[in-house]
TrEMBL record:
It is an enzyme of class 2 (transferase). It comes from Anisodus acutangulus. One of its GO terms (cellular component) is membrane. It is found in: Membrane. GO terms for molecular function: ATP binding; protein serine/threonine kinase activity. The keyword Signal applies. This is non-specific serine/threonine protein kinase. Keywords: ATP-binding, Glycoprotein, Kinase, Leucine-rich repeat, Membrane, Nucleotide-binding, Phosphoprotein, Receptor, Repeat, Serine/threonine-protein kinase, Signal, Transferase, Transmembrane, Transmembrane helix. ATP binds at K80.
Length: 337
């Protein structure tokens, strides 16, 4: 019997790579794009989850369910099983984009190991982050108190660095399209990484940037109400909302509109924008939080061109001496005031 598996170099229109395999197993109808052996990865995940038994599910989202899986070849991984309605409609562009995402290696970005799909299952495989999403921690009364001001400032810096990298250093630039607390994951030490970069576009492929926006309600830029053109400035707006959410401990809601309006901004007090579950900040920490709030407000400006770039924001956060001072301190809870 002839081997029906085709490597990426045999598929017209796909780029080849030494470290990423794109395999088509025609006998089993399996498409895989992975830094690992795709067919083996598919089999191992089905075996480890007992074909996606609910007991292994650790969360659900708009595009699918997430499972925690222990593989023979890796430590724990997170597997996002896509909804049954998912379909690869532009095979070549989809595979090339997934390949590009699997090749990204950045300390502030969750590693994507690959993608597997056949008639029964389609899923993405990521490195596993022990503490899960930032959104779930902020909603938890006990866990949220472990996120002191130092940790929260560091998370904001990390997200800014990750977005700047995707916008500035990737060619072509990658727009996240759904930057929110649900897509910021934390490890055991509360170090943050951004997940699902570019996945929103992959799940709703289009030949241009004018496509259905898959962002989180309340976090998306206002211009998307009248245009579906997604740009880096949409990520900037969402970053501003996220930064305020991290400091407040919950979504800023109506404060977004108030802060974006110069005539109403002065009516907002600092205490209105900070998490009441934490001790009130003082001295250098207070100054840093005010600095970050001002940066976040600049991201919320209605006109996209008026917003700063993520490169500028990350530069400001890395160059400000007070931000550098407090984020270099050993992360520990602030004393009670």
């Amino acid at each position: 019997m002839c081997d029906q598996r085709r490597r990426v170099g045999d598929i017209e229109g796909l780029d080849s790579s030494d470290d990423v395999d794109v395999d088509v197993d025609e006998d089993n109808g399996l498409l895989s794009i992975s830094t690992l052996n795709g067919s083996a990865l598919y089999r191992d995940i089905l075996k480890a989850t007992k074909e996606f038994d609910a007991m292994f599910c650790i969360g659900k989202g708009g595009s699918g369910s997430v499972y925690k899986v222990k593989l023979p070849s890796l430590e724990n991984v997170a597997v996002k099983r896509l909804h049954s309605t998912f379909e690869v409609t532009h095979h070549k562009s989809f595979m090339n984009e997934v390949r590009a995402l699997t090749k990204i290696k950045h300390r502030n970005i969750v590693k994507l190991y690959g993608f597997c799909s056949n008639a029964q299952h389609s899923f993405l495989v990521y490195e596993c982050m022990e503490r899960g999403s930032l959104s779930s921690i902020l909603r938890n009364e006990v866990e949220s108190k472990k996120l002191d001001w130092l940790k929260r400032v560091n998370i904001i810096k990390v997200v800014a660095f990750a977005l700047s990298y995707m916008h500035q250093d990737c060619s072509p630039p990658i727009v996240h399209r759904d930057i929110s607390s649900s897509n910021v994951l934390l490890d055991s030490e509360f170090e943050a990484r951004v997940s699902d970069f570019g996945i929103a576009k992959l799940l709703k492929p289009d030949s241009s940037n004018c496509t259905a926006f898959a962002g989180t309600y309340g976090d998306v830029a206002p211009e998307l109400a009248y245009t579906m053109k997604v740009t880096e400035m949409c990520d900037v707006y969402s970053f501003g909302v996220l930064a305020l959410e991290i400091l407040k401990g919950k979504h800023p809601g109506e404060y977004i509109t108030v802060l974006a309006n110069l005539s109403t901004r002065d009516h907002v007090q600092l205490c209105d924008l900070l998490d009441e579950r934490l001790p009130h900040p003082e001295n250098e920490v207070k100054e840093v939080l005010i600095f970050i709030i001002k940066l976040a407000i600049s991201c919320l400006l209605e006109t996209p061109k008026s917003r700063p770039t993520m490169h500028f924001i990350s530069h400001m956060l890395s160059m400000d001496p007070l931000v550098s001072q407090i984020t270099s301190m050993k992360a520990k809870s602030l004393p009670e005031m």
